[in-house]
Amino acid sequence: MGVLKKFEQRLEGLVNGTFAKVFKSEVQPVEIAGALQRECDNNATIWNRDRTVVPNDFIVELSAPDFERLSPYSGQLGDELAGMVRDYAKQQRYSFMGPIKVHLEKADDLDTGLYRVRSRTLAGSTDQQGGPPAPAPAGRPGGYGYPPAAAPAAPAGAPPMPSAPPPGGARPGGYGYPQPAGGPRPATPAAAGRTRYWIEINGTRHQISRATLVLGRSTEADVRIDDPGVSRRHCEIRTGTPSTIQDLGSTNGIVVDGQHTTRATLRDGSRIVVGNTTILYRQAEG
Description:
Elements: H1 3-12, H2 29-42, E1 45-48, E2 51-53, E3 57-62, H3 64-70, H4 74-92, E4 94-95, E5 101-106, E6 114-120, E7 171-174, E8 195-201, E9 204-207, E10 212-216, E11 223-224, E12 235-238, E13 243-247, E14 254-256, E15 259-261, E16 263-266, E17 271-274, E18 277-285
Parallel strand pairs: 2-4, 3-5, 10-11
Antiparallel strand pairs: 1-2, 3-6, 6-7, 8-9, 8-18, 10-12, 12-13, 13-16, 14-15, 14-17, 17-18
Helix pairs in contact: 1-4, 2-4
């Protein structure tokens, strides 16, 4: 059973239907849970072959109406969301530098049904995946609008750490703001002379590290597209010579380089439209 499904079942099982009113809000708790998963994927930092560190402190910004609906339950909901993040990290083999915390905040610039997620990595007294505590970052913490913190020193004998973590910061989400899910764990750079494949959605790059990549609105898709015009399993990209895209029986179909189709050959720079979302397909040697 998927992590998000387990999260939904835990919410439904809370005493006396505490969250009955919550589920009537424009933003659903499971949407926030999916956004937290994507925030982990998009900000994962590879320390060494056996350890990938993700943020452990999250702020979920909500519109005033959604915040008013959810804030009475913020403590319990925050605990449930933190538990979901912990379960997802275990599934993905991610590590944390400190305790997981999820907070709700009101954002007056957001309309009902929209939300933003911000995150940062805060060192704590325990390593959430076991082992000795990770060293605390130097200087001011990153995220929440601050410059990224200096990277912590790698354990003795480990390969050098990246000079800086992947860019974090606010990401819009919710209805009308397509926000793709992070796919598999960050891939090792392709060997020289081999073809690299990736797609770009709203400025976010998603590496294609497997022979096939499913795009859709479902949390089970390899890349999740939060767009009401996109089906749960909308289409599939197959890399090769040549690479192709195949519609998977979607409601609204696919448009490739201006042509409505069910299957098409892809070239570097091909533009794919699904629902209201445009996807740029890219490939390069080496």
